[in-house]
Design a protein that fits this description.
two-stranded parallel sheet, 14 helices, alpha/beta
Length: 346
């Protein structure tokens, strides 16, 4: 860094171009790398270096997974114009934004936040801080809040993202009917929604069954136990005819009637009905009439002999190949350098 400070005055312009070109070749940013820390150091050299270090083309994507972010740091990063950000399992201390960033957020809102793909899965942050992050986001296309604490305010902020396509809220706590209403009203372009094990109330389930947008293609409602009934499935099938993936595992009161309704889904490819104990094992044979169905998961229901018999009778369907749902999840399998197939680091 010292060498950079002694560049001849008449060479500054051309040297900036060289360095700028080199930085563009390294558009990915990681807090753990030595190169990325140069952005912060360079910004302290001069105003010209600051303009280079803060150029938005260098901050399009960033991986801050498993990092400990001090107060105000995350706000500065968001202010650089980041589009794709991974914060999975990170710890963020309050305040998220410093006083100057808050002023920017208030008077220059849309220019301030350009986030479109945001992974906040299992983030450690007070609810106040999470709402502070969501309050500057209105251009999100994909969002993951897996295992996060939310409230009605959080859902209200989510509902302002009218172009939202993918939403992962698996194992979220604090979700209620008021919050769901905000999301359902504002996010009418949702295609993938994971609500697995969010302990939805009866009111929430009925609201979903009657108000889900027609655009939904992938839906996870696992873990509803006695609260998801046959009538809800019938309404879901009617409201969401484009469903390709449906996970209703652990809905213990569903019967054969629910399966009869699901058969009406002409585009369904993947069906999870694990631990739905009141559906007769023999009734799964009726799925042979579903030409679109490719995967069926019935873990915890059939014996090994019955499972093998089902495979023989349904040769076009793979049985029990996927233990966990991947609906709306940003990373699956061993992939850790991308979210929703968008790279966040090299």
């Amino acid at each position: 860094m010292t060498l950079f400070c002694f560049v001849e005055v008449d060479l500054k312009a051309s040297w900036e171009k060289i360095v700028f070109y080199k930085y563009r070749m390294k558009s990915s940013f990681r807090f753990s790398s030595g190169f990325q820390s140069m952005y912060w150091l360079d910004a302290q050299v001069s105003k010209r270096w600051k303009r280079l270090a803060y150029d938005e083309s260098l901050w399009k994507r960033i991986d801050l997974g498993k990092k400990h972010l001090q107060p105000g740091v995350l706000g500065k990063v968001i202010g650089r114009g980041v589009i794709t950000m991974r914060l999975c399992m990170s710890e963020v201390k309050l305040p998220v934004f410093d006083s100057f960033s808050l002023m920017q957020k208030k008077y220059n809102f849309y220019r301030y936040s350009k986030l479109q793909y945001l992974d906040l899965s299992m983030i450690t942050i007070p609810l106040e801080g999470l709402n502070e992050i969501l309050s500057v986001c209105q251009q999100l296309r994909k969002l993951s809040l897996e295992h996060c604490q939310v409230n009605s305010e959080s859902c209200c902020h989510i509902g302002l993202n009218t172009n939202l396509e993918t939403l992962n809220m698996a194992m979220c706590e604090g979700l209620n009917a008021e919050g769901l209403q905000s999301i359902l009203y504002g996010c009418r372009r949702l295609e993938s929604w994971n609500l697995g094990w969010t302990h939805l109330s009866l009111d929430c389930i009925q609201l979903l069954a009657h108000s889900l947008p027609h655009s939904i293609c992938h839906l996870n409602l696992s873990g509803c136990r006695q609260r998801l009934i046959n009538e809800d499935i019938a309404m879901l099938v009617q409201k969401c005819p484009r469903l390709q993936t449906l996970d209703i595992s652990d809905a213990t009161v569903l019967t054969n009637e629910a399966l009869d309704e699901i058969i009406k889904l002409e585009s369904l490819e993947h069906l999870h009905v694990s631990r739905c104990y009141n559906i007769s094992p023999a009734h799964y044979l009726c799925l042979k009439n579903m030409s679109s169905l490719r995967h069926l998961d019935v873990f915890g229901v059939l014996t090994d002999v019955a499972t093998q018999s089902l495979r023989i009778n349904l040769p076009h369907i793979e049985i029990n190949r996927q233990l966990f749902s991947v609906v709306a999840r940003p990373t699956t399998g061993i992939r850790r350098t991308s979210i929703w197939e968008l790279r966040v680091r090299d």
